[in-house]
Amino acid sequence: MVAAPAPLTARRLGPLRGRIRVPGDKSISHRALILGALAVGETRIAGLLEGEDVLNTAGAVRALGAQAERHGAGEWSIRGVGVGGFAEPAGNLDFGNSGTGCRLMLGAVAGCPITATFDGDASLRKRPMRRVLDPLERIGAHTLASNDGRLPLTLAGARDPIPIVFEPQVASAQLKSAVLLAALAAPGETVVIEAEATRDHTEKMLSHFGAKLRVETIGAHGRRITLAGQPELTPRPIQVPADPSSAAFPLVAALIVPGSDVILEGVMLNPLRTGILTTLAEMGATIERLASRDEGGEEVADLRVRAGALRGVEVPAARAPSMIDEYPVLAVAAAFAEGTTVMRGLKELRVKESDRLAGTAELLRGNGVAAEINGDDLIVQGRGTAAGGGLVATHMDHRIAMAALVMGMASEKPVAVDDAAFIATSFPGFTGLMRSLGGDLS
Ligand code: S3P
């Protein structure tokens, strides 16, 4: 459970200096627990993100009959039950704030002949699940009860799952992954055709566990993924690299607090996650990739980030899938740039942990930055500085909270957030790490 509201204020102080490692990648952590639970035998995980979202997924796989044990910081073992082997849970599965945990587990449960009720907090209860339920129903699952396609909902998994060809109407890795996880239990080949490629951690981890999966590129941005059903998943060790979406917060802070020089260790640089680095480079940011290496099948590097002048840019809609979680903090960088930044094609931001398009615009305006929403685009007028002085409503959204605090570290007056408690869903230790770099958060 998320703790009572915890207001927090960030103030401008001296430059940020030092080396930090942000916690493990959230997307990979959820998938490691879920695939571990669907494999036969024991999967060892190192570097698991122990944020509330991921801990809720651990609770769900336990409730479904897998064993998930913690051995030390980030060190876990999962004893799986095999594809299609989940047992009916005794109570509701509570995913808290996590859309990823909920949607991926809807897929995993949809391939098992069991019934389960999915629930979450007030934020998750508002988020659309129909997009996931539609293809899962084609595979053979049934939605027994839902609140108009929202949580709480009860899903009866397929008794005889059938393979499908699915072309998602939204670029969503959660949606793609839910279908692939359900399709594990179906005989024959399931095909997912993405017009815009989204993060491919599910595909990579399925291959790592021995599933037969073919990925072809189509057109400039698309992918066609073909999965052979009913594999036996074989446990393989998983090393979770540092989360680039979490790294984005200290990274932008280091860019906009004058004189800063920070190293972020072991950040995952999967090309479907690095849109923020491309954009910041176009804005003139100095970010060096040091000691590039492979960790658990992903490219990682230490990022050296130094403060410097930024300029406004246009961010194309096609880049959105590779930086979907980074727009709130990019908008903060845009405020400290000189000139106009236009971020195009942000429709999906409206259905995140909060309406992030509205929340980001509010966060900027409340701190003296001109920002406007035009259709699905966000336009920010950068003036190289921000007044600050605002109290930002975080709407149960960890990324709005962290983006606001990053802004406060560089703005003329402090920036406060009404509730920093949700930061623990994805980035436990955020406040301590920012303080260790020299940030003033209290
Ligand atoms: C995620 C996919 C994205 C992202 C979320 C994590 C994942 O959501 O916003 O934080 O792990 O698959 P969508 O797939 O809905 O865009």
Topology:
Blueprint (H helix, E strand, L loop, with lengths): L7 E4 L5 E4 L5 H13 L1 E7 L5 H12 L3 E6 L2 E7 L11 E2 L4 H12 L4 E5 L10 H10 L2 E4 L7 E4 L8 E2 L6 H11 L5 E6 L6 H8 L4 E6 L3 E7 L9 E2 L4 H13 L4 E8 L6 H8 L3 E10 L2 E9 L7 E2 L11 H10 L1 E6 L12 H10 L5 E4 L2 E7 L7 E2 L5 H11 L6 E3 L12 H7 L3 E2 L1
Helix pairs in contact: 1-2, 1-3, 1-6, 2-3, 3-4, 3-5, 4-5, 7-9, 7-11, 9-10, 9-11
The structure holds shikimate-3-phosphate (S3P).
The site of shikimate-3-phosphate has 11 residues, from helix 5.
Characteristics:
442 residues; alpha/beta; UDP-n-acetylglucosamine1-carboxyvinyl-transferase, Chain; 2 domains; 4-stranded mixed β-sheet; 28% helix; binds shikimate-3-phosphate
Walk me through the structure:
The chain is α/β, with parallel strands linked by helices. The protein folds into 2 domains: 8-24 and 241-441, Enolpyruvate transferase domain (UDP-n-acetylglucosamine1-carboxyvinyl-transferase, Chain, Alpha-beta prism); 26-229, Enolpyruvate transferase domain (UDP-n-acetylglucosamine1-carboxyvinyl-transferase, Chain). It contains 12 helices and 24 strands. It has helices spanning 26-38, 52-63, 99-110, 130-139, 173-183, 201-208, 244-256, 275-282, 327-336, 356-365, 398-408, 430-436; strands at 8-11, 17-20, 40-46, 67-72, 75-81, 93-94, 115-119, 142-145, 153-156, 165-166, 189-194, 213-218, 222-228, 238-239, 261-268, 286-295, 298-306, 314-315, 338-343, 371-374, 377-383, 391-392, 415-417, 440-441. The strands form 6 sheets. The protein has a 4-stranded mixed β-sheet with strand order 22-23-1-24. It has a 4-stranded mixed β-sheet with strand order 2-15-17-16. It has a 4-stranded mixed β-sheet with strand order 4-5-3-14, covered by helices on one side. The relative contact order is 0.15. The mean pLDDT is 97.
